[in-house]
Amino acid sequence: MQRRYFLGVLGGVVAWPLSARAQQPSRVRRIGLLMSRPDDSLGQVWFAAFAQELQKLGWEVGRNVQLDTRWGAGDTERFRRYAAELVASAPDVLVGTANSIVGDLQQASRTIPIVFVLTIDPVGSGLVASLAHPGGNSTGFTAFEFSLNAKLLELLKEITPGVKRVAVVRDATVPAGSGGFASIQTAASSSGVELIPVGVHDAEEIERGITDFARGPNGGLIVVGPPSSVASHQDLIVTLAAQHHLPAVYATLAFVGNGALISYGADGNDQFRRAAGYVDRILNGEKPADLPVQAPTKYQLVINLKTAKALGLTIPPTLLATADEVIE
User: Fold this and answer.
1) Predicted pLDDT at 181
2) Does 201 lie in the same domain as 173?
3) CA neighbours within 13 Å on the CB side: how many for 207?
4) CA distances, 273 to each of 46, 47, 56, 86, 153 (Å)
5) Do 139 and 271 lie in a common domain?
6) Nearest CA to 56 among 293, 274, 268, 271?
7) Which among 35, 48, 43, 36 has a CA at the least distance from the CA of 5?
8) How far is it, in rounded angstroms, from Cα 48 to Cα 54?
9) Chunked in runs of 10, what are the mean pLDDT values of the chain (328 residues)?
10) Burial of 312 (0-12, 13-18, 19+ CB in 10 A)
11) Taking a C-beta distance cutoff of 8 angstroms, is the pair 323, 316 a contact?
12) Are residues 7 and 139 in the same domain?
């Protein structure tokens, strides 16, 4: 996304009609956001959706609310440092994306309310006590259920019926990676597909894993998301898939904008708009412990026909008809 356009979006936020604003306290409230990559156009769009929804709810940037944003760019040490910085600024609410980022915010504060977005298994990862009754100072919105990872394999087989081997790129150290792989493994057991896990510890491990896998026939690629450890290598993964002519399906929508073939995942704009609603309720006195964690209400299927053509693939018309977006 061009920086000029992004600033224009926020300019539109400030100019929201007065009639749409609720009556709010006169003091300026502070919201701290810790997000992943500032050069990720999708992340910028999500931020704008969040700010616009706040505006609709009566929170005008520069009048009664201040947004303090940090972008960690996939650097775990930077996330920890920024989490501490945001907490030190004494915000009224914190917003974080992905499990590891929320974990850093919780380590920095157990009292400041936290609203999370696009997380995986928040109960299993210890972010909340339960979905219905989160407890503590955190609540928010999950990215998807583990079982939906099986949909990625289903999509891969639909576009390449002859696939017999699938490399699964995932971070095995986080619930999204281990749980996602297990879900795909369950689905693969009944379809005769062999799965080969590929780690994401660093770029060398990713390149070695995908390159070695690509030496065999009838292969495809699934990239489980959305941990920052995977997202920080998205350019490399997309490049390797193209270089080795591997049809690939991704759980993170940002990949398709970078030339990936197909993605299927939660609608991030919807998640951030709903997160703004929770922030509004907290600023008006509700407690995170009393707000249930919610699953996605919208999923998006995005197909890149330019990439399909480069791979020599014909996307089934029935699949194109169900796509939310087709990139040509």
Assistant:
1) 81
2) yes
3) 7
4) 8, 9, 10, 21, 29
5) yes
6) 274
7) 48
8) 10
9) 39 43 67 81 85 96 94 86 97 92 95 93 91 96 81 93 92 74 84 90 93 95 77 86 94 75 89 97 97 91 93 94 92
10) exposed
11) no
12) yes
Enclosing domain of residue 243: 146-250
Structure tokens at 317: 């018309």
- Is residue 67 located within the same domain as residue 194? no
pLDDT at 281: 98
d(CA 20, CA 56): 6
pLDDT value of residue 173: 78
Which CATH number characterizes residue 171's domain?
3.40.50.2300
CA nearest to 266, candidates 252, 276, 255? 252
Q: How far apart are CA 154 and CA 184, in angstroms?
A: 9
* 168 and 137 in a common domain: no
Specify the number of domains making up the chain: 2
Residues 9, 135: one domain?
yes
What's the pTM?
A: 0.78
- pLDDT value of residue 115: 98
Let me know if residue 317 belongs to a domain: no
d(CA 8, CA 14): 10
Quick check: 287 and 115 in contact, CB under 8 A? Answer: no
Tell me how far apart the alpha carbons of residues 20 and 254 are, in angstroms, rounded to a whole number: 32
pLDDT computed for residue 262 by the predictor: 93
At residue 6, the pLDDT reads 40
Residue 43 within a domain = yes
Residues present in the chain in total: 328
Q: Are residue 179 and residue 238 in the same domain, yes or no? A: yes
Are 94 and 178 members of one domain?
no
